[in-house]
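Deviations from the work plan: none for this task. Representative record:
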Amino acid sequence: MSGVIVENIRKSYVSREGFRKKRVVEALKGVSLAVRRGEIHALLGPNGAGKTTLIKILATLLLPDDGKAYVNGYDVVKEAEKVRSVIGVVLDVSKGFYTSLSGYENLVFYALLKGYSYGEARKRVREVLELVGLYEMNAHNRPYYTYSLGMRARLSIAKALLTNPPVLLLDEPTLGLDVESAKTVRKLVMDLAKEGRTILVTGHNMYEIEQIASSITIINKGLVIASGAPADLKTRLGLMLRVSMRIGDVNSNVAEYVKNLIPVEKISMEFNADSTRIVFYTKASREEVIQGIMQIHKSFDVKIIDLVIEEPTLEDAYIAVVGGEHGS
Ligand SMILES: Nc1ncnc2c1ncn2[C@@H]1O[C@H](COP(=O)(O)OP(=O)(O)OP(=O)(O)O)[C@@H](O)[C@H]1O
């Protein structure tokens, strides 16, 4: 049974422009996805793709116009209360806290709202602060306004964990964070999944998501444009390895050698005084490329000075499907 199921969800926003005119934005035009229990699933897309809208529907903050969605088996429309009891939500990491209160006081306030007794609240807040690393940083007693963005993100996740929910819905939890803080938050998300939680996380940074998600759905303008495991997506989208090689020879025939041994899509050469740089793109596997290059080395006595084989990142996958329309 999946942790999250989304079936053909549609949602439009209607806003008034002037006195009579209505503007309709179709934020979701029939989106489906499934997140297995205990899995990190990434929902990727450029700005305005519809990611936040879907998270809000799953969090029971917005009603869909059409379609079905279930969280841990509960219908987000008909069983909203039950859905709320099994989710933890992060919508905007830098909002929702009282700036003059400490992280600890903020969370105790929210824990009391969730129905914990004062004693229970204090105990649970300490646990979640420890879980996200704010306790060991000794940051829990500092006022919120002194928190860095990274600490604010951790506190948002701590808040989402107050009720120990099995499902986490995280909307861009690393947005605006510096590299180190983003890394810490990613590690935290992975640790939370290892504990058996189902996590749906949105983002638009392929590099980040590739490292933590076991499956991905890419949406654009309210439609799913690709989905699958990161590696499968790369293959399906026909992404190519980029091979850059420098040989200790000025040899214009080497491009022919390469093309004879490796299926090459695009090749370019740059001649220097005593070496040649060859750059090519191929759909062949890394192993096939290495075998081909070994063959060139052996058969033509070419000295290879350096060799770099770069795998396509999901950034490439994203550009391949979204084209020039991707956001920042
Ligand atoms: N309350 C609203 N009223 C009118 N239009 C809205 C509203 N909220 C979102 N939209 C529009 O719906 C579309 C989807 O927005 P949504 O916030 O879900 O996208 P997103 O993928 O989360 O983008 P971002 O990364 O910028 O937050 C956009 O065109 C947006 O302008």
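The chain has a mean pLDDT of 89.
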